[in-house]
Design brief:
The chain has about 290 residues and is mainly beta. The protein contains one helix and 37 strands. The protein has two domains: about 40 residues; about 250 residues, E3 ubiquitin-protein ligase SopA (Pectate Lyase C-like, 3 Solenoid), CATH 2.160.20.80. It is about 10% helix and about 40% strand. The protein has a 20-stranded mixed beta sheet that branches. It has a 17-stranded parallel beta sheet that branches. A hairpin with a 2-residue loop joins strand 8 and strand 9. The longest helix is centred in the N-terminal third of the chain and has 36 residues. The radius of gyration is 24 Å and the shape is elongated. The protein starts with a helix and ends in a 12-residue tail after the last strand.
């Protein structure tokens, strides 16, 4: 066989191989989209979504309000050890808000998010977990509503700003051992079940303004490096701040501690605002032994 024919054959085999690989990738992506639309259970492990995952591009949406469209995912969805360039579950387009509701559980375990997480108005009727994940981008979970038995972000790390404002957690929620490198805001969120923030690290601003902790909250061994704001919070049942460290500033303005309060070995900063704060029991943050 001539050198020309050999090179042509080799080029042809490489071309066929590339086309086969592209076809395989497209088929896999098409299969995933199909599973989402059909409401099948989904389990994906070790996949890299280099072009991101945007649910607003392929789900079937229906109009639920004049300016709002909604799509439903009926199966359990689990991602393990996956890498997402982006994750998008909602979008404004031509004056219309597109949102997604998961009727069962949504799980991310040991996943990495690189560029974008846009998930405001996300509604999960089952459990929602994003444990041991690494968020290397701004994260927007504002107006998140979880109706399942548990919400968990345990042992996750947030490199940039995290928005969890105006959220509703119907049952237990856990942010245990999370690391928040930049600012985090839970403003106006409602925690209907017991909430856990034990051993969490807040390196920048931590905002809990106007939050409602209805069944108890734990901040044991949490570390607030800069400003911690609990302005106008309502805390019921129990609130535990054992060995919690507030290093720079603590704002309790108008906070209502309608609960049993445990501040054993809490470390307080010099800058504390308690104007209008109310404590149901005699136990307050201001025991001299705890300063």
């Amino acid at each position: 066989m001539s050198k020309f024919n050999k090179n042509s054959l080799l080029l042809g085999l490489i071309t066929i191989g590339c086309l086969t690989l592209l076809l395989s990738v497209n088929m896999k992506d098409h299969t995933l989209e199909k599973k989402f639309r059909k409401g099948e259970d989904i389990f994906i492990e070790g996949k890299s979504f280099s072009e991101g995952l945007d649910l607003t591009l392929f789900l079937n949406f229906r109009r639920v309000a004049p300016n709002r469209m909604e799509a439903e995912v009926n199966g359990n969805v689990i991602f393990s050890h996956c890498d997402f360039n982006s994750l998008i579950t909602s979008r404004y387009k031509d004056g219309i808000l597109y949102t997604v509701t998961f009727n069962r559980s949504l799980v991310f375990k040991n996943c990495v998010f690189d560029q974008v997480v846009e998930a405001p108005y996300l509604h999960v009727k089952g459990d929602f977990t994003a444990v041991e994940c690494y968020f290397n981008c701004k994260v927007d979970f504002s107006k998140l509503w979880v109706q399942g038995r548990r919400t968990s972000f345990e042992n996750s790390k947030f490199i940039k700003k995290l928005i969890l404002t105006n959220c509703i957690f119907d049952n237990q929620s856990s942010f245990t051992s999370c690391e928040f490198i930049k600012s985090v805001s839970f403003q106006n969120s409602v925690f209907k079940g017991t909430s856990f923030f034990g051993a969490a690290s807040f390196l920048e601003y931590a905002g809990f303004e106007k939050c409602s902790f209805q069944r108890g909250v734990t901040f044991d061994k949490a570390n607030f490096r800069k400003r911690a704001v609990f302005h106008s919070c309502n805390l019921y049942n129990t609130a535990s701040f054992q060995s919690t460290k507030f290093k720079k500033s603590l704002d309790l303005n108008k906070a209502q501690f309608l609960c049993n309060l445990d501040t054993n070995q809490v470390v307080l900063p010099i800058d504390i605002n308690t104007e209008g704060a109310y404590f149901l029991t005699q136990k307050t943050f201001f025991n001299p032994l705890e300063r």
